[in-house]
């Protein structure tokens, strides 16, 4: 017979054993050579049994055949334990296509950057790699911010042309 609960710490002064026929034996420390350590050991064994029973109760207790429709088809919508959402072939294909497109755009950008004028490469580097503002670039070069905006506009149109 499996136990369904643990004896509280306050009531562990003795040990009560129930036989299969329902008879009850009380084991008390100091009687028949029983020590408090023996009582503690018996309670710890019961605790272990209760813990194992709780783990067993929380497991999935369903048969795989329960996840079939009447027409003997899988009922994956009702089987959350067997459904595998991680390997969706459509999602994998879309992701591969998106990565290929992204890589293609990066290659085009790399080739377009190689064909820029040295001043345009420097401006691109300051804006996108060094994260400088238009005001900072204008101050460093001794020109107006409007001049930097104009250069950036020409840079964007040149990159757009080269990447097309």
What does this structure look like?
There is one protein chain. The protein has 164 residues and is mostly helical. The chain folds into two domains: 9-58, no CATH class; 89-163, Winged helix-like DNA-binding domain superfamily/Winged helix DNA-binding domain (Arc Repressor Mutant, subunit A, Orthogonal Bundle), CATH 1.10.10.10. The protein is 54% helix and 5% strand. A hairpin with a 5-residue loop joins strand 1 and strand 2 (24-27). The chain is elongated, with a radius of gyration of 38 Å.
CATH class of the largest domain: Mainly Alpha
Rounded to an integer in angstroms, the radius of gyration calculated over CA atoms is: 38 Å
- The separation of the N and C termini measures 78 Å
String of helices and strands: EEHHHHH
Low-confidence stretches: none
Which descriptors apply to this entry?
mainly alpha; Arc Repressor Mutant, subunit A; 2 domains; elongated
Quick description:
The chain has helices at 36-58, 89-114, 118-129, 134-141, 145-163; strands spanning 15-18, 24-27. The chain is mainly alpha-helical and 164 residues long.
């Amino acid at each position: 017979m499996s136990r369904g609960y643990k004896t509280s710490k306050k009531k562990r002064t003795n040990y009560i054993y129930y036989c299969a026929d329902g008879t009850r034996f009380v084991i008390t420390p100091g009687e028949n050579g029983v020590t408090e350590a023996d009582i503690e050991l018996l309670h710890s064994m019961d605790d272990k049994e209760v813990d194992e029973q709780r783990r067993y109760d929380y497991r999935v207790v369903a048969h795989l055949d329960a996840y079939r429709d009447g027409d003997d088809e899988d009922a994956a919508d009702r089987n959350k334990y067997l459904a595998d959402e991680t390997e969706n072939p459509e999602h994998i294909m879309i992701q591969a296509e998106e990565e290929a497109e992204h890589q293609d755009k990066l290659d085009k950008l790399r080739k377009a950057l190689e064909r820029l004028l040295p001043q345009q490469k420097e401006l691109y580097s300051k804006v996108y790699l060094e994260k400088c503002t238009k005001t900072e670039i204008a101050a460093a070069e001794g020109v107006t911010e409007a001049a930097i905006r104009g250069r950036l506009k020409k840079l964007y149109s040149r990159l757009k042309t080269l990447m097309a």
